[in-house]
From TrEMBL:
Belongs to the cytochrome c oxidase VIIc family. It is found in: Mitochondrion inner membrane. Component of the cytochrome c oxidase, the last enzyme in the mitochondrial electron transport chain which drives oxidative phosphorylation. The respiratory chain contains 3 multisubunit complexes succinate dehydrogenase (complex II, CII), ubiquinol-cytochrome c oxidoreductase (cytochrome b-c1 complex, complex III, CIII) and cytochrome c oxidase (complex IV, CIV), that cooperate to transfer electrons derived from NADH and succinate to molecular oxygen, creating an electrochemical gradient over the inner membrane that drives transmembrane transport and the ATP synthase. Keywords: Membrane, Mitochondrion, Mitochondrion inner membrane, Transit peptide, Transmembrane, Transmembrane helix. The keyword RNA-binding does not apply. Pfam families: COX7C. Its main location: mitochondrion. Component of the cytochrome c oxidase (complex IV, CIV), a multisubunit enzyme composed of a catalytic core of 3 subunits and several supernumerary subunits. The complex exists as a monomer or a dimer and forms supercomplexes (SCs) in the inner mitochondrial membrane with ubiquinol-cytochrome c oxidoreductase (cytochrome b-c1 complex, complex III, CIII). It is a single-pass membrane protein. Signal peptide: none annotated. GO terms for biological process: mitochondrial electron transport, cytochrome c to oxygen. This is Cytochrome c oxidase subunit 8, mitochondrial. It comes from Suhomyces tanzawaensis NRRL Y-17324. Pathway: Energy metabolism; oxidative phosphorylation.
Amino acid sequence: TRTFRSSAVASNAVYGSPKTGPYSNLPFKVKDRKIPFGLFYWSITGLFFAFPFLSTYWHMKKAGSF
């Protein structure tokens, strides 16, 4: 039978060594950002929450209700 092997040296040469530590498994940067992550998160969440209310207000204003 044939066995397949890959050495750590060979894979590190192509992909590099993985990062270790907290937040290293996330696909986005949490620490040392220009805009703090909390501000970014809550502003996007607020925008998505407010969108239907703002859209409803806009259409009612166009229709002459306000």
